[in-house]
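In response to reviewer comment 3 from the previous cycle, which asked for concrete evidence that the modeling workflow produces usable outputs, we include below a single protein chain processed end to end. The sequence was submitted unchanged, and the resulting structure tokens are shown without manual editing.
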Amino acid sequence: MKRSEIPPAASYDRCPYCGAKVKSSDSHLISDVVRHMYMQCQNPKCGHRYLLQISFVHTTALPKYLTVSHHLPLSKQLQSKLKSEKNDNISKTNEVICG
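The workflow returned the following structure tokens.
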């Protein structure tokens, strides 16, 4: 594989060295939002092994059922949307009260 064809290291399904497919050999849940996965390159000439960490970054849409009590970060877009909805609800309440 030519160097220009090798996917970026951020591609978790390809070896960052040779670009071949990788396989997960094991994984461990570190916390509710972090998982470690042991990866191995499937190219026998490479054989690269590494630990991949998959982690939660932020919520982009609230879950429909709020049964989990995590206090997870929200995306900036979702924060703006929720703030706008809250302000709309406050002004609607003021309209009803003040009439």
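Residues 76-98 form the longest helix (23 residues). We consider this sufficient to address the reviewer's concern, and the full set will be provided in the supplementary archive.
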